């Protein structure tokens, strides 16, 4: 994923002012991106780690399709290969279908990360579809129905039912949700906090 795996490393390398594109590095970068693309599972999501390809439950920015989108968008911008933009679009369809995460509003493993995934695709293409999707996720994030679903969600990895371990934090709580909602007001200027640095 973007937070815990190869995807995030590749994303950073593609921001290294041409170093990633020097002769030997370009081939390695492209091979790594192609390997990442090849890990795509049958339903379109990406595994959270090697050996878990059959377990397709995590549609999180940190583990799965939402975090893959900005990586493939950047790959398309840097390498100009249309298959990477196609992969980002396909991943956005997965996020749209399955990205209403009951773990909460967070950026890392919540609906906030999905908002930023759509915004990355929107900034790159200017297409209305990812912007519409980001806006709908933002509306749902603020809805009583979503709050009720999160409050009732049981997660064995959490200390308390319906409550993130760090409920006010940037990556796990309201801090990140606030950033996503603010960025929805100026989507062409949006940037995932601590991750986007163009």
TrEMBL record:
SUPFAM superfamilies: LanC-like
Protein name from the UniProt record: Uncharacterized protein
Pfam families, sorted: LANC_like (PF05147)
Binding site residues for Zn(2+): 62, 108-109
Domain of life of the native organism: Eukaryota
Family: Belongs to the LanC-like protein family.
Organism: Bicosoecida sp. CB-2014
GO cellular component: plasma membrane
Keyword tags: Metal-binding, Zinc
Matches recorded under Gene3D superfamilies: 1.50.10.10
Gene Ontology terms, MF aspect: metal ion binding
Listed GO biological process terms: carbohydrate metabolic process; peptide modification
PANTHER family, alphabetized: LANC-LIKE PROTEIN (PTHR12736), LANC-LIKE PROTEIN 3 (PTHR12736:SF7)
